[in-house]
Amino acid sequence: MLSATLKAKPCGHCGSSFTPVRPMQTVCSPICAARIVKAKNSQERAQFKERKAKLKRIPDLIKEAQTAFNAFIRERDRDQPCICCGQPLGTGSVGGAFDCGHYRSVGSASHLRFDVRNAHAQRKQCNRYGAGRAVDYRIGLIARIGLSEVEALEASNTPHKWQRDELIAIKALYVQKLKDLKRENA
């Protein structure tokens, strides 16, 4: 028999001593073998996820950071009325009944896209179908943050080039802020 010629050795997973049945056997049982495979797969998935994160382009990172920021703003303002029309925000089916509306649009003032003074909860009818209702938004914004802050937003025209690390940090910040706010509101 082959097993008679092989000497006892420690298991590659649990460390217990065993006598191999096959020449290349490194573990004592199928359970230890499954645990090694599971650990290896977990490590490979983590490495793949890390490589995939490094391949993300700036627009992808902006989108992820914007999603986290918008979710935070919607949660922050969920108990307030719409910034434009003053009606309750309410709830709706998929995606809710309100958006995170920006006073100065992301397209025209992308440097203000993550500025909490520039973003407030807005009913979808006002934000999407009412073209943002800029005049009404301004009136509501003055009531919430004051005229001097609104004028500062309107005067801000410094372009900003978003960097990879900055966007990753912004996403992490607003994901954490959202968790804290939900915990606080619960």
Core attributes:
single chain; 186 residues; mainly alpha; two-stranded antiparallel ribbon; 4 strands; 8% strand; elongated
Question: Which regions have little confidence, pLDDT < 50, spanning 5+ residues?
Answer: none
Strand order of the largest sheet: 1-2
What Rg, in angstroms, do the CA atoms define?
A: 27 Å
> Percent helix among the residues?
40-55%
Shape: elongated
Strand content: 5-15%
Backbone structural class: mainly alpha
Sheet with the most strands?
2 strands, antiparallel
Which helices and strands, and how do they pair?
Elements: E1 9-10, E2 17-18, H1 30-54, H2 58-76, E3 98-102, E4 119-123, H3 124-129, H4 134-145, H5 147-155, H6 164-185
Antiparallel strand pairs: 1-2, 3-4
Helix pairs in contact: 2-6, 4-5
3D structure, described in words:
With 186 residues, the protein is mainly alpha-helical. The chain has a domain at 72-185. The protein has 6 helices and 4 strands; from the N terminus they run ββααββαααα. The strands form 2 sheets. The chain has a two-stranded antiparallel ribbon. A two-stranded antiparallel sheet has the order 3-4. Strand 1 and strand 2 (17-18) form a beta hairpin. Helix 2 (58-76) runs parallel beside helix 6 (164-185) and helix 4 (134-145) crosses helix 5. The longest helix has 25 residues, at 30-54. The radius of gyration is 27 Å and the shape is elongated. The mean pLDDT is 89.
